[in-house]
Design brief:
140 residues, alpha/beta, 5-stranded parallel β-sheet, 4 helices
Amino acid sequence: KTITMSSEVEGGVKLEEAYVIVSAGRGIGKMENLTLIRETADIFRNSAIGGSRPVCDQRWLPLNQQVGVTGKTVTPKLYIACGISGSQQHIAGMKNSQCIVAINKDPNAAIFAVADYIVIEDLVSFLPLLVNKYHERYGE
């Protein structure tokens, strides 16, 4: 799937209605790595892609997918923060999620303070392993 700059929500699920949100932060490195975020979101039903302010400011994602004080406040069952450092503005928009998984190669990332599960790893290495393991197990 191609990520385009439009006012439509990618995947058709609004952030506020998604059971699972996979969010991208500056730590994804480059716009092309949004493919990893999409592939991860695709393994979940009723999922959406979110982003931190820097990702949306760079126009890698539309502004209507921004999570945080200047974006949307969300409360999904599962929030996966990928490469998000955890500014207070972002955390305010997602801290009430039922389960928060934070993936960041910085062991001191502020997002870890609100995360239920912490993965200290480069998401470019970790996400493909996660997606491949899912496909191996469930054959989808």
